[in-house]
Amino acid sequence: MRKFLVVLDDSRECLNAMRFATMRAEHTGGGVQVLSVIPPEEFNHWIGVGDIMREEARERIIAHYEVFARWMRDKHSIDPELVIREGEPVTEILSQIREDPEIGVLVLGAGTGKKGPGPLVTQMTKSAGNLPVPMTIVPGELSKEQLEQIT
Questions:
Q1: Of 5, 23, 48, 103, which has the fewest CB atoms closer than 10 Å, so is most exposed?
Q2: How far apart are the first and last CA of the chain?
């Protein structure tokens, strides 16, 4: 089964990437793997404090994921898989793709503000030629209806 790998973060554009990946998986018989990366700079504290912060970050990620997972299951009959990694986002995304041979497409959401598409999209497009899978960048301005039409 081909999986659509979508990155879960706190960005607004993440929502459209989730929607796109879910609807494509539903229409193509694929699956969805949701990846969240905890950056290392969040834990540069005393060991005990860093461990507590790491656990709190994981709990926030799981709570955020469960909202999307419930929608995927209830509305689209997709049972997503959550992967949480720690490190630099681009490095961890590339590692996840290389480690899971079922991943067929990376799906990212692009921001719509004056700052550009966002740091993750900017960094990943620089590596696009070397990716082992295609990358789909979903514009943040697309409506649900537009997403339904193209998926």
A1: 48
A2: 18
| Nearest by Cα to 36 from 72, 62, 73 | 62
- Whole-prediction pTM: 0.90
Write out pLDDT tens, residues 110-141: 998 787 888 889 889 988 888 999 999 999 88
Residue with tokens 């509305």: 75
User: 147 to each of 12, 24, 150, how far by Cα in Å?
Assistant: 15, 10, 5
Distances from the Cα of 24 to the Cα of 2, 54, 116, 138, angstroms: 11, 32, 25, 12
Locate tokens 């719509």: which residue?
A: 112
Cβ atoms of residues 2 and 102 within 8 Å: yes
What are the structure tokens assigned to 53, written together? 């912060």
Residue 84, both tokens = 């949480």
By the 8 A CB rule, do 124 and 106 touch? Answer: yes
Q: Which helix (H) or strand (E) holds 146?
A: helix 144-150
